[in-house]
Design brief:
There is one protein chain. The protein is an alpha+beta fold. Helices cover about 55% and strands about 10% of the residues. A four-stranded mixed β-sheet has the order 1-4-2-3. α9 links the parallel β2 and β3. α5 packs across α8 and α6 runs antiparallel to α7. The longest helix has 25 residues. It is elongated, with a radius of gyration of 23 Å. The termini are far apart.
Length: about 280
């Protein structure tokens, strides 16, 4: 996997310290996990990943997983790996960021206590997906970790019937954009995660996405920019896994939320309005 040809030649005869790595697996394997059921399950999941990586010659990641297993087994809270912890291909960063947000929301929403084994599997498979996506040369392994994560996540994201509103109402979320930009900033990505979570919670039937601009450009430019903003939100919602009809509309600089003179760059008008329809 990552091991050099020299390491591959001597791996069978060296102890867990082969080629400067892999020492943590043996130490962790000899420990008995403690703490909550979630912590013990997470210990087991991470230890399995550590062994798998060690057997493939990836001693560095074997160590990473072994340390995370041991930490969880000591009863310490271990969060899913941050997306920034690894170098992820640019076209995969948004999906992983959104997925981590969904996972953290579920974990902090009681999944660790409600479904500890599924929650532990979801976290371990997310970290596995992160690792494989960073390496980015084993598509079968990437797909296996991603599929395992999504399957486990589906089990812990279910909203209890008692928490669902009896008569859900249409809801609106407004996402703002930087000047002359149609790409989501950090706040915008969090807003999309919130939209998707809420749409799932109320079993939304559809979503209406409307793009707008301020009045600082020409009519034609602003119409194109509002279309790009509307498309960016629609694509982000789809990427987050929400499969409901999405109706997109673009209005350019028309229907300003903040009334200004022509040519004025007003942040309150650089927006996309998202209506969640139950």
């Amino acid at each position: 996997m990552k091991v050099t040809s020299l390491c591959a030649a001597v791996a069978a005869t060296l102890a867990l310290s082969a080629c400067g790595g892999g020492m943590e697996l043996g130490q962790t394997s000899a420990t008995a996990p403690a703490g909550s059921e979630f912590n013990r399950a997470l210990f087991t999941e991470y230890l399995a990943l550590s062994r798998s990586e060690y057997n493939q010659g990836d001693y560095r990641d074997s160590d990473v997983y072994a340390v995370r297993a041991r930490t969880a087994g000591q009863g310490t809270l271990v969060e899913p790996e941050e997306v920034s912890a690894r170098t992820i291909p640019a076209d995969k960063t948004q999906e992983l960021t959104s997925s981590r947000g969904r996972l953290v929301t579920a974990l902090r929403g009681g999944a660790r206590e409600r479904a500890p084994r599924d929650a532990a599997q979801a976290q371990a498979m997310f970290d596995c997906w992160m690792e494989q996506q960073a390496e980015n040369f084993q598509p079968i392994d990437i797909a296996a970790c991603r599929t395992g994560f999504l399957a486990a996540l589906a089990k812990i994201e279910v909203v209890p019937v008692a928490q669902q509103p009896a008569s859900p109402q249409a809801e609106n979320v407004t996402i703002y954009f930087d000047l002359n930009k149609a790409t989501l900033n950090d706040k915008g990505r969090r807003d999309v995660d919130r939209i998707v979570s809420r749409a799932r919670a109320i079993n939304a039937k559809s979503v209406v996405v409307e793009g707008y601009t301020d009045r600082s450009g020409s009519d034609a430019y602003n119409m194109r920019l509002s279309q790009k903003r509307e498309n960016a939100i629609r694509d982000a919602i789809r990427l987050a896994g929400l499969n409901v009809p999405i109706d997109g509309k673009a209005y350019g600089e028309a229907r300003s939320a903040m009334q200004t003179a022509d040519g004025v760059a007003e942040a309150g008008n650089r927006r996309v309005s998202v209506n969640i329809i139950p």
